[in-house]
Amino acid sequence: MAKSATNAQAASAGAQTLARGLRVVGLLVDESEPQRPSQIARALDLERSAVYRLLRELESHSYVARDAESGRYSVGSGLIALSARVMRRVDLRRTARPLMEQLSRATNETISLHLRQGRNRVVVDAIRARQAVSHSVEIGDQVPLQEGPSGKAILAFLEPNEAAAIVDDALGTRKERTELLAALEEIRRQGYVALVGDRSPVVAGISAPVFGFDGVRGSLTITGPSDRWDKEAMEAHAALLVRASNELSAALGYRID
Asked: Domain 2-86: which topology?
């Protein structure tokens, strides 16, 4: 009986320590700046000595990292690597599908999911509009990033030097490059892009970027015939599309501030 009680007490203490450790990690993930042990203790209402013990244990597994000069703690490489392994297991198409179906019901236009592959974007899933006249998107199609709203939504959120290199190599004249770079800046500002006739004069599309923990991964796009799915119709559904892309990004590990 005594041994059983001792084991139960040990298990309870272990669970309490684990819960406190997770709270410490959660705080460091949420904070934009490294934290002193005293700040952590105050924020979590814990004894400073307990926080020191938790930090030492977490540091031994690289879940937190201590800056030798300031003595402040931040998220460690071990936690980042663990998060990356978890995020790689997320099935993007399965995660995106319910959101795509919501967009399909709300707009009755074609919904497509695109992933970046080098300097191209590839269609990985699509839901065709249930209308007599609609825009068809073929799964597996690859298109350069600088062409169409789906690619531009990705290109706009690449690292500036990388995006500029793609633009420089893809476009022939200085005027074309300047105009596209200005358009990409506008996309970054508003968070989506709506274009009529960019690749075909009879097709219009609106696209928003999809992010993962490591940056922009792809885009969600709504396309339709330009005489029906015009600028006004697209702008009316822009907030819905951005909300869906943000939700998908969050599921992929992207932190939206």
From this structure: Arc Repressor Mutant, subunit A (1.10.10)
